[in-house]
Amino acid sequence: MIECYDIIKQYGKDCKALDGISEDIKDGEFLAIIGESGSGKSTFLNILGMIDTKDSGAIMFDGINYDDLSKKEAAQFRNQKLGYIFQNFYLEPEYTVYKNVEIPLLIAGYSEKQRKVMIENTLKKVQMKHKINQLAKNLSGGEKQRVCIARALVNEPEVILADEPCGNLDSQNTQNILQILKQLNKEGKTIIMVTHSKSDAAIADRCITFKDGKIMNEKTV
Amino acid sequence: MKKLFNLLILAAYEFKLNKKLFAVNVVICGMLFGVMLAMAGLACNIPKEIQDEILNSEFGEIQISNIDYKDIEYITKLPLEIEIVAYEMDWSMFEESLNEKQKEINANIDIDTSLNFVYYFSDDTVEISMINENLISGEKWSKEDNEVQEINPLWIEESLAQSMGLNVGDLVRFSNTDCNVDFYVKGIYRDFEHSLAASYVSVKLYGTLICEQGKSIMIRARCNTSPYTFLTTIHSLKKDYFIVDSWGNNIYAMFLLIAFVGICAGLLLLITLSVVVDFIHIYLNLRQKFWAINKALGLTDDNRRFICSFISFFVILLSYGIGILLSKGLSWYFTEYIKTLFDFMDLSLNLTIGQSIMILVCSLLFGFVILWNKKIDINSDIKG
Amino acid sequence: MKKSECFHLACYNLKTFKKSRKQYFISIFMVTFFMMLFCSVSLIIRQMYNNIIYDRISTNNIDIYLSLDLDGKEISNEASELLHKMEGIENVSLGAKYSLVNLSETEEECYGVNIEEVKCLINGKEYVGEDDYSFDFTEEKSISKREDKERFSVFFSVDAVDLESAMFTENMLKEYQYKFDSNMFLYGREIQGEKELVISDYMLNRFGIYEDYDSLLNQKISFKVNQNMVLEDYTIVGIINSDYFRVLSECDRSQVLISGTSDFYSEFEVKELIQKVGIGTFADSEKILDSIETKYDDYYYVSSTIYMFGMIDKFQLICKRVISVFIVIIVVAMVIKLICNVYINRKSRAYYYGILKAMGMEEQEIIRICFYELLMILCFCMVLAVILTFLVLKALQYIIEQSVGYFIAVSIQELVAAIILTGGMVSLLMIVISVVMNVDLIRKSIVDVINS
């Protein structure tokens, strides 16, 4: 369970990206965050994913306060508990698919044999096993996103954070990705997805709307 | 014309956008150009100054054993000022061959009876000039007298000729256990200033007349040419003759200095050019996407080359300007320092305008060649 | 993440990113190579100058002849007084050749006799001198046995060392160390008191003593020339290595040295003391000589090579000055270049670091990966630079030898010194610059790093 209390994030003196966000996210929930560009939804996701810092407020993950974690613990937390799917994929273009997905496992300290098995299983799930040795820069957008999902999943995290996972994809690929995310949610993963598309948000259990750094309303689908 | 102007505007904008990168590289290249130009100035100007210093210095000798006419011919053609120093031979070594009357005369008269085996290669040397000027009978020495003859010409001093009863045209044979040499008296001279020897013969006979092993003719060489020519000449002489090398140390020491400065100047030119190339590559890599997008928008390769060339030329020119200023300062510093060691009154270590322009043109051309070869592929370069 | 995993990832990165990091690698390689070449050339040139100078540094002396009065006291010499006040003068060695006039029944004053006329007594045991005709210290070459004894025989002579001055000048010691690099005294010490004697091993060999030199120390020694006592009951305090007498200024010095004082000078009828005034460097000698040249011709002697080597020393000083000024500027330029390159490289790597951090890698581990990558690049650059430097030096050596016939010795010592100096400096610079710049980047928030 993730609990957020009064999260504030400010850029400069006048620009408040988040203005007192408080939200609870239950285990196994599929939450969609929608809003226009600049509403603060990606900022919120980044803060949840520990890849950005907040100015004030508190986040509790299963009773653990983010602020109480040391840098080392935070890194471990990011590796073990969270999986991040970026809009721009953020794969290393010169690495192969295998290598891109291997990074979290290397960090976690798995042996080579274990890594091989886990990577192959994960890529099978996202239907990318046949391109395991291909360089990331040679993949299409949809394939890149699937590899990104595999990388986020491979360590079997509890929570998956997806920042506009279908933002750069065509409709066919969008549907494929959303299906994968739905399937993962059915398997028990908590998914928090940021999107600007209401149709994409429709697959989520719950939807919250951001506007000007605040939560406007909440919808249960 | 308007298009050219617009391209220049684009170049100026690029310059403004990447001013930090350009500023850093101007500083680095400026420093390296400065040091390189100062080094080049040292390497070009020092040899001339030191050459004058060395011209006034004494040198050692080249030993040539068993000299013959071919040796003389070879040595006369060398770009060196040659002074032949041959050991004197005593008449007493040839006493056995003198007739009884001559021996009797010798015993009674106390004269300097040394036989000099010295011949100079040109008639403007002091001793030959004096002999020719003070000739009282016979013929003057000329270059043809160096050529091999069956009976060798001999010039003899007046008092010695009288004491030995010799006249022009008389034949004299000198012999000892090692050799026989025939002479005819070609000329008799008067030694007014008592600075000449009693007699002179061709230097080519030295090897024949010297009967003690290990003795050989000495030739003193003076450096009247560039140090490089001097060194290469000595090097070629060493292949055939024995050079007494201890005196050559100062030439080699000077050569080491010039070689060191020359090598460093060359190295620095390479470093500077490599830094220029590096900077161009860094800039092009940084702005790869930008140029790819512009190419997609219709900018031709030639336009791009024009803009990039203009930018790099500008940077090189700026750096060169800084380099010139720095090199002037360094040259002044070294000039003052060298003047404390050597008495060079008019020492200047600055390069000539021609030399400076040549280096600048090479740098600009080099930069241009690097830019010319850079290709842009829209698709891959946009994606990065 | 284990250290070995970090290392493997670093290796993988170098293999994978070789195209994009090519420029970075070339920059580091160029800096390393050029610095190494510059350093090597400087060290080689410096060594060559040292070889030329140190080969005859001992001749950088002014020999002043000090006159003595009938009582053996020194008559003051203006040149000597002037020199002592001058800058650039090193320590002074004072000595005399002892006359053997009254001791060898010769009519003329002589400073040496044929060694076969000499007997040596050590603790009552007599040793007779024997010539070997085998070695001429001044010519430094072997001469085969000849019939003409007088020209090549070993002479016995005695030199005194004034107790109030140094036994050897600094220049003599420098030349000896350069040529032989061994202990000057095989056993014992320098002369410090009265009636003390130092003798060379070569001289002892001439008297048939070839071993157990140390047992001779503190023994009493006397010399007789044709039954006349020349030196009586002197204490042997040192056995000097005869190689010392191959130092150029010492070739004609006696290999039997005794302590000298004014009493002894008068007893042995010494007419002149020779004060060897060592000048610090050849470059200073011209100035010093110019100031005394016109006034004091009769009182001193200098080696003819002093002017020539003065010039050589000045060339060396110019080289040193050039190196010292230029190395500062070049190092500054190279440091700025390295900083620039690391900065550019860091920008291109920011994205990669951001991904790793987002995946949960600790800052320490990322820094470790950077460090391993840098280390491998440095090692590779160093190896390449060493090979290329060696090849370039050999090529230069060949070209110079073929064109002007001068052989520039490229010794391993200089090369190793250049490698260590350059390698150490470049590596240290790179590590410090990289660590400082990358740590700063890595510590930023992930979003800033990815988007930078």
Describe this structure in words.
The complex is a heterotrimer of chains A (221), B (384) and C (452). Helix content of chain A is 35%, strand content 29%. Chain A is α/β, with parallel strands linked by helices and 221 residues long. Chain A has a six-stranded mixed sheet with strand order 6-7-8-3-9-10, sandwiched between helices. Chain A has a four-stranded antiparallel sheet with strand order 2-1-4-5, covered by helices on one side. Chain B has 384 residues and is α+β, with helices and mostly antiparallel strands. Chain B folds into two domains: 2-55 and 252-383, no CATH class; 61-243, no CATH class. Chain B is 57% helix and 12% strand. In chain B, strands 5, 6, 7, 8 and 9 form a five-stranded mixed sheet that branches. In chain B, a hairpin with a 4-residue loop joins strand 7 (171-175) and strand 8. The longest helix of chain B has 41 residues, at 301-341. Mean pLDDT of chain B is 73; it is low at 111-118. Chain C is of the alpha+beta class. Chain C has two domains: 3-54 and 312-451, no CATH class; 60-304, no CATH class. Chain C is 50% helix and 18% strand. Chain C has twelve helices and 16 strands. Chain C has helices at residues 3-16, 22-54, 78-84, 149-152, 170-179, 201-206, 262-267, 282-293, 306-358, 363-404, 412-442, 446-451; strands spanning 61-67, 89-97, 113-114, 118-122, 125-128, 135-136, 141-142, 155-156, 159-162, 185-188, 196-200, 220-225, 228-240, 256-260, 272-279, 300-302. In chain C, the strands form three sheets. In chain C, strands 1, 2, 4, 5, 9, 10, 11, 12, 13, 14, 15 and 16 form a twelve-stranded mixed sheet that branches. In chain C, strands 3-8 form a two-stranded antiparallel ribbon. In chain C, strand 12 (220-225) and strand 13 (228-240) form a beta hairpin. In chain C, helix 9 packs parallel to helix 11. The model of chain C is unreliable at 140-151 (pLDDT under 50). The chains are: A alpha/beta (221), B alpha+beta (384), C alpha+beta (452). Chains in contact: A-C, B-C. At the B-C interface, helix 2, helix 8, helix 9 and helix 11 of B face helix 2, helix 9 and helix 10 of C.
